[in-house]
Amino acid sequence: MAQVTLTINDRKVTVDEKSTVLDAARQLNVKIPTLCHLNLHDLKINHTNASCRICMVEIDGRRNLAPSCATPVVEGMVIRTHTKRVLKSRRKVLELLVSDHPFDCLNCYKSTDCELQTLVNEFGINKNTYEGFAMSQYPVDESSKAIRRDLTKCIMCRRCETVCNNVQTVGVLTGYKRGFEAVVAPAEMKGIVDTKCTYCGQCVAVCPTAALTGISYIQDVWNAIFDDKKTVIVQTAPAIRVAIGEEFGMQPGEIVTGKLVAGLRRMGFDSVFDTNFGADLTIMEESAELIERVVKNKDLPILTSCCPGWINFLEYQFPDLLNIPSTCKSPQQMFGAIAKSYYAEKIGKKPEEIVVVSIMPCIAKKYEASRPEFAPNNVPDVDFALTTRELAKMFKEAGLDLNDLPEEQFDSPLGESTGAADIFASSGGVLEAALRTAYEKMTGKKLDKVDFVSVRGMEGVKEVTIDIGGTPLNFAITSGLGNARIVLEKIRSGESKYHGIEIMACPGGCINGGGQPFIHGDSSIIEKRMNAIYKEDSGKKLRKSHDNPSIQKLYKEYLGEPLGHKSHELLHTEYYKKHGS
Amino acid sequence: MAKKINSYDDLMNYFKEKEPLIRNRIDLTDKNQKRQILVCGGTGCHASESKLLVENLIKLIKDKGLSDKVSASQTGCFGFCEKGPIVKVFPDDVFYIEVKPTDADEIINRHIIENKVIERLLYEEPSIKKKVETQQEMSFYKKQERIALRNCGIIDPETIDEYIANKGYQALGKALTAMDQDGVITLLIESGLRGRGGGGFPTGVKWSLAKKNNVPEKFIICNADEGDPGAFMDRSIMEGDPNAVLEAMAIGGYAIGASKGYIYIRAEYPLAIERLQIAINQSREMGFLGKNILGTGFDFDVELKYGAGAFVCGEETALIHSIEGMRGEPTTKPPFPANSGLWEKPTIVNNVETYANIPPIILNGAQWYNSKGDVKSKGTKVFALAGQINNVGLVEVPMGTTLREIIYEIGGGIRDGLEFKSVQTGGPSGGCITKEHLDTPITYENLISIGSMMGSGGMIVMSEKDCMVNIAKFYLEFTVDESCGKCTPCRVGNKRLLEILTKITNGNGTMEDLAELKELSEVIKDTSLCGLGQTAPNPVLSTLQYFWDEYVAHVVDKKCPAGVCQKLVKYEINAKCIGCTACARVCPVECITGSVKQPHVIQQDKCIKCGACYTKCKFNAIDKN
Questions:
Q1: Which of B391, B401, B402 is nearest to B436 (CA)?
Q2: Which of A87, A552, B342, B416 falls 20 to 30 Å from A67 in CA-CA distance?
Q3: Which of A58, A93, A154, A183 to mutate to probe the B interface, most B CBs <10 Å?
Q4: Which residue range forms the structural domain that includes residue B454?
Q5: What is the tens place of the pLDDT at every residue in A96-140?
């Protein structure tokens, strides 16, 4: 690609011609503050709205200041990034944003994690210049179990809109009203519960302020922990252990499994278990289902069903395909179902005496836990789903710093797992785990090389053909709902030649879930988490789900066979056509 | 079924056949021809029942068996809206004003049958204080030159034959048969025509940028989203000469290589929409739109797209997004529409008046056009005169005409003998110009240099009775209402400007507020995403610059010198009060006390400053301070 040379603050820089002024400045390590801009290179998500007007710079020969994020470089351009005029304008623009934003950082969900607050700090703005003038008024939307919308904090960066419409193709969020009243909201300002929102939480992940946050269950969980009459157990999803360290200043990708267990135990949970157990169990059922459908050549391709955001997407947008996903519940729900049956019997408790808390990288898991079909006799299998971020806050509240904690082991029996379960956290992992088991079950041979490298990576749509005992099987792996739509449309039109498709709602998989620590525009963090996941897997002695002794014991003592009667009752579900605007 | 025109020769033959239709409206020397009565059919005159007037005339002509001696029809706007409805009798060249439907009888019986001019319907020319019969004698018309409005007041806009009779579609024919694409573009560049929507970008250069893109699909858009308060130049052109817009768009399509055009018009312009649709239908039937136009192999068609009246949709990128079915919001430029516009295809967006100038330029040549006007601003410009001026209406003058000529000669000066204070040009994006700049020749550059801009041609004249702080507030109310809300400076900044202005007009302003007004205005101009935001503070900045004392009076003395800002006005009863009690009876809050035949008193703490007592008092006994 052609290169152009320009001058920024009297320094020359040569960049590729498709670059923006902001890209060029970054190449020189010249920092230009941004707010609405979001460019997640590794996930191919680029939001260049140029609406906040914080990143303004002075360009010779131009009448007005230019937004560096959206201004293409031109040969010979001369740019200044911190002149009196630039700094005055940026400050004024920030003062304007602040003047229509509640000055309530002390009790805000996003305090210390808010990009607006960070800028206000950096600029040293400590008062509202326009005190007493109008402020936007909107009621808070807490209609759903998962996402909280407080539009008084919306700064119209439109990142959520781009993610909802262009990346996820869910199409719930749009610019609403005009002028001073403009915000991003569902059409007609409907409550989120009345829309076709999948609760994937990618909008929450990219929101720079607290306009979009998860619904918090922190207090409910503390109450349960301190309730002597309850047995409170916790499960943690595979993606948590490679991300929560970031909340304690550790490097992205640092694996903190043992410290996480120690922290949870110190918080007061009666037993600390692992969603990985549920993941291994899922593989037992799902690989059996895959084999059955391939053998019978029926209802293909089979689609994975671990991701509740994706399941919501299916129920709203592809109701004609409800028959093809695997009927397996997600690992979270399988864990909950086993905890409140098998495990409850083992410890001599009634299901209602046990509280299952799950720590998830996900916002949609909060909704999934609340689905009525997952609450037999009105007792939910999973009582509360917390995000990685919520757990980090609870640790901090209790004075627990992961840096200082020892490494401990999960409790038995629901804490034992294999490497196959770890990789559920990243795009391609569920399929790879299923293949490790399906291969051995189908061929009767031992699989020596367990790494299916071709299914891994951040690419949004991956297609692979895997030979299993002489039978070539075609698979697709997609992450991001917009990518899911591509393959689902193929199924709808009859073009699909796939036997199985793994779908994860969040780009890159659960490592980039809506409940994970905020990445603030640095998509390299996702790759580091992904690498850590595969490292965790490769370090395990057992790397195939069916080798998990606790799982083997569970089938022997309680479930019988995969897809058997008891399994169907506890571990499988069905899907429903849904309507939303 | 209309005749299909298959070639340029066909067109020229048809022109010769139809030319007599309007011959006596252009050549006024042959007084023996059949008479024609033309009635203004613009929106303003329509509202004063001009349509009924035409119907009455037609009925009378028929009833009296005069059909071979006289006809009556409607035409486009004459521009003299102040005195509408306008009626003009050809070839007599008699110009009647303020004609009512009931005047039809007298026009037929007296003027047509008895050959007598109806004195009472004539205009009295103020400069000579005498009634005059012809347009040429009226100061309102003396300095005007009509190019964009050439057919308004001459042809019936609903009859394509009359457009053709005045050389309509000959420019298209000439371009398609005698010029190549670059030839058309070069001619336009040489003519010096610049965008009449406000920006003033050279039209030919814009076309050449779009032509350079070698892609199969391009678009031509006509921006008919005229939104400045008080502006109706484009509406009048579309109502009075819709075919001119279609012809120019087809020429543009040929020049850049587009076969599809859209007219983005606000739904609040029903008459313009109706006439454009009639013109599109007739033009398609005759083959000026559609496939293989004039047998040259060139295809072009036009579709109307209705806007919902959002001001920001006049900004070209917002307009394009609106046509695409998206939220009407601007996007950052570059890319410019000429490279990536509608559906990311090269697109030309020109305003109605710009298009209206193009056919005569093609027919008469670049030199003809660039000999008119000023050094950098060529040709003519249409202005909508409004406000405290005697002759409200639509005028077209050569560029370089001074503001004084327009306001005092054409506009007839300030109403009620009041003192001129300021003229606002460029609509909400423009600024207020003072007395000292009245002799400035109007050009794009000159207006910018005195803190205003050309804009689309709104010209609002203000007198000593207008409060300039309140005027700035009025424009800000408009832009705050019309901001799309996308970028911070426009969404929040303009709102804050308005709030500060409101604070000042309520008597709560401080000198710090004035400093903030200026500083904030400059930042909004410098950082807003689109033209709406970048120009919205202009009314504030120009009034701050030229009427600083008036701001200070509001802030320091807590007084509104023009007596407009209600909260700053104080009503007091003076010694002239005879105790008639009229004021006390009209007061809605009963705050005036006093007995009959005794002086009354206004209780200031209760007074809501509605002014009812002031208006009611016949004895000048109430002072307004």
A1: B402
A2: B342
A3: A93
A4: 380-463
A5: 999 999 989 999 999 999 999 999 999 999 899 999 999 999 999
